[in-house]
Amino acid sequence: MSDAAPLLEVRGLVKRFGGVTAVDGASLALAAGRIYGLIGPNGSGKTTLFNCITGIERRDAGEVRLAGRRIDGLAAHRIARLGVGRTFQVIRVFPDLTATENLLAVSWGDEASARRRGRELLGLVGLGRLADEPAGSLSYGQQKLLELARVLMMEPRLILLDEPAAGVNRTLLNDLLDAVRGLRAAGRTVLLVEHDMKVVMAVCEHVFVLDHGETIAEGPPAAIQRNERVIEAYFGR
Amino acid sequence: MSPSATSVTPAMLAQVVVSGLLAGALYAVVALGLALIFGVMRVINIAHGTLLMLGAYVTFWWFHLTGLNPYLSLLASMPLLFLLGLGLQRFLVARVVGAPELSSLLLTFGISIALVNATQLAFTSDLRSVEYLTGSWLLGPLAVSKSRAIAGVVALLLTGLAYGGLRTTRLGKAIRATSERREVAMVCGVDVAKIDLVTFGVASALAAAGGTLVAVMVAIQPEMGQGYTVKSFLVIVLGGAGNYPGALLGGLLLGLVEQLAALFLTAQVSEAVAYVLLVVVLLVRPQGLLGGRST
Amino acid sequence: MRRAALALLALVLLGLALYPRVASGYGIRFMLQCFMWIALAQSWNLVSGLTGYVSFGHVAFFGTGAYTAGVLIARHGWPWALACLAGGVGAAGLALLIGYPCLRLRGPYFAIAMLGLNEVMRVCVSYFEGVTGGGLGLSLPTLQASLAIYYAMGLTGALVTLAAHLVVTSRFGLRLMTIREDETAAEALGIPTARYKLAAFLLSAAGPGVVGGLFARDQGYIEPISVFPLATTITMIVMALFGGKGTVWGPVVGAVALFGLEELVWARFLFLHQLLFGAIIVGVVLFVPQGLVGLLRDRFRLPRYV
Predict the structure, then answer these.
(1) How far is A64 from B100, CA to CA, in rounded Å?
(2) Could you report the per-residue pLDDT of C93-121, keeping only the tens digit for each?
């Protein structure tokens, strides 16, 4: 772990839904400029943790700090403007808006330069030709790429990717992974939730493991694969 | 007549409580229908009050044409509206189940307007009434309007029957399952399209029952339904959306609040109380007083 | 292509401006009402068409504008043009008062709250009898001003449509539309949806407020039932839906078409035409949810400002 102050710090986060405790004291710390993974068996609370970090859900206890500043309790749109972007498990592009409009809608500042950036980003993810198509008419893979371009449009410091590899074919997957590595090269920090272990091994430098809402292990991917507690969590005793 | 706070006697208060509970039971049975439609199909049925109005007209014509006890018209209004509900669901509402809420809101709004105006064309907007039961029963110091008492008791019975059905019959369980987890219910072999159909029919029948009971008490005219639609929403919001027993409690609570307001405020203002209460509850505790599911 | 359309528009506007010279009194009144419906339908579109938040109580702003202007003219002697503008401001003020809490509710709950709003307004007007004249209505000093009102209504309709054009072609408009598309995602991507909804709501209240005032001036007498009828909200909605909610020219087309039909065909059959409105709403929602103009846009891939 680097010794610079962490970009994102989550301490003892708790989130309950009625009688169920989805997240039960999870903690993690992310240093800037690296690619992190968040794994865990189904129902371990990964997406809920994402939702709490991004402010979509209100946490019941615990802290979330972005570059030292507390962001828990802030409205989702403020957290986003502070530099936290995310994609969703189920694709949520704006279907009636064109690809370009999807990007413009989340851009701020001078409109002309926003349009230029939008064109660049669409070109980067290979959607240049489809700039004026309604997002709803794009294929699943194209929508995934659009979601990525859209989150990049916000110029976030931290990007949370919720199951980026879900339902994606081999070729597109490689493109996505290249894009993720490119993000790291550009100095951004990535935290991705994934079920596909190959993806996690291929691209993550450091992995957190969640089980029953708690962080039960963390470390480099290779070490995690051999960690007994992790194996137990996934396969039972 | 609104007495000042100091001159309210325990007897008056008891009177208000009894009237409130009876009125509330009526609200509850109507709101239960709305809750079922929302719970099962996630559709906001703005035409619900209009269905009640149609039930009231059935009762009016029953009484006008046969002279028989208007309460017996439940045997006509409920089945007739059940069938209408089936038809509406099958041909119109089914198409917007699963669509964005905007669609079902506008659709049921359109249905409501069409039905109200069709009624106006057919029966004119002249006020009608069913003069059958007047006066009150005296229970000690309390005077309870007869029609209100019967309405309340019948409403409670119907609500009880409905709850019983939901808990014990196979259909009822299927309805509850579909409300809670539609996809899971489908996977478990529940024919959700049929459940949607039956639910809308039952809900319409419940609204019709409300209409029949109300017909004996108030003036009947084509636009009478809207107030009941909004109040039914208030009941659901009070009890928690998707929380069927909550509809009963929400209804009783609304009845009580309205009667209390009528005691201390002018008649006009107490009418508005329901609407203001609606907005306040939505803002303060949208999941309802008993807690339910959010949309 | 765009030049031709603009030229056509300019021609139409010129024609409308010169129309009173050749028209009968009836013709002027017909167009005057047409302009009013354009302003109303377009205003409804500004909030409900773009954000997807259905406002069932929009007539409340019309009525508020009518009473604000009416009271200012009748009791305080204000010149009517100024009073109508004040009506717009009053309506916007009401929108702020209601919108601030109510827009925090999600779509369906908001719609329900708006349904109740109407009733509350009617009760309030009757309650404040001293100021407004209560259930008995409010009389304005007589004034023959059909011509001036014609231009005022026309101007308002044009301005509201212009506002729609500017909104739809701006990022502000795009952000409003994201609320309709996926509000949670919009929030997660940095759009302060509550603020935007409120802005749209305020904007959508000003038009009805002004035309409400103009209506009051034109009629010379208003009472609660004449300025808060549910029928007005229904008509606004049908026009916007039929023409195409979410588009710029849809509400204009819808207003002209349906008002024209109403006046020329159905005027004698009040309930029949309301029944037809209900049927049209049902038909549009089920079969042509994007409305006439929306259909054209989809078919011919027309740009957003249509």
Answers:
(1) 34
(2) 999 998 988 888 877 788 888 877 766 77
- We find that the CATH architecture of domain A1-83+158-237 is 3-Layer(aba) Sandwich (3.40)
- C240/B contact by beta carbon, under 8 A: no
* pLDDT tens, chain A, 237 aa long: 445 678 999 999 999 887 788 888 889 999 999 999 999 888 788 889 999 999 998 889 999 999 989 998 899 999 999 999 999 988 999 999 999 999 999 999 899 999 999 999 999 888 999 999 999 999 998 999 999 999 999 999 999 999 888 888 888 888 888 888 888 888 899 999 988 888 888 899 999 998 888 888 899 988 888 888 888 887 765
- Measured from the Cβ of residue C13, the count of other Cβ atoms closer than 10 Å reads 12
Any domain includes C283: no
Looking at the domain assignment, is residue B11 inside a domain? Answer: no
- The total of structural domains in chain B comes to 1
Out of B92, B223, B227, name the one closest to residue C286 (CB): B92
Whether B73 is in a domain gets the answer yes
Identify the domain containing residue B143 by its residue range. 16-225
As for the ipTM of the complex, it is 0.89
Q: Is residue C294, in this structure, part of any structural domain at all?
A: no
Chain B residues touching residue C282 (CB < 8 angstroms): 92, 107, 110-111, 114
Do C102 and B121 make contact, defined as CB atoms within 8 angstroms?
no
Confirm whether C298 is domain-assigned.
no
Query: Concatenated DSSP letters for chain B?
Result: ----GGG--HHHHHHHHHHHHHHHHHHHHHHHHHHHHHHHH----TTHHHHHHHHHHHHHHHHHHH---GGGGHHHHHHHHHHHHHHHHHHTGGGGTTS-HHHHHHHHHHHHHHHHHHHHHHH-S--B------SEEEETTEEEEHHHHHHHHHHHHHHHHHHHHHHHSHHHHHHHHHHH-HHHHHHTT--HHHHHHHHHHHHHHHHHHHHHHHHTTS-B-GGGHHHHHHHHHHHHHHH-TT-HHHHHHHHHHHHHHHHHHHHHS-HHHHHHHHHHHHHHHHHH-TTTTTT----
Nearest to A105 among C171, C187, C188 (CB): C171
Q: Give me the total of CB pairs closer than 8 Å, taking one residue from chain B and one from chain C.
A: 127
Domain count, chain C: 1
CB contact under 8 A, C272 and B107: no
Query: What range does the domain containing C189 cover?
Result: 25-229
Which residue ranges make up each domain of chain A?
1-83+158-237, 94-155
Rounded Cα gap, residues B156 and B118, in angstroms:
31
CB of C60 less than 8 A from some CB of B: no
List all residues 6 or more positions away from C69 whose beta carbon is below 8 Å from its beta carbon.
Answer: C78, C80, C83, C84, C86, C87, C212, C213, C214, C216, C217
Spatial neighbors of B234 by CB under 8 A, at least 6 apart, are B250, B254, B274, B275, B277, B278, B281, C116
pTM attached to this predicted model: 0.88
The shortest C-alpha distance from B17 to chain C (Å) reads 25
Cβ–Cβ contact A234 with C under 8 A: no
Tokens standing for residue A61: 């206890």
Residue C299 within any structural domain of the chain: no
Which of A106, A107, A151, A162 is the best mutation test for C, with the most CBs of C within 10 A? A106
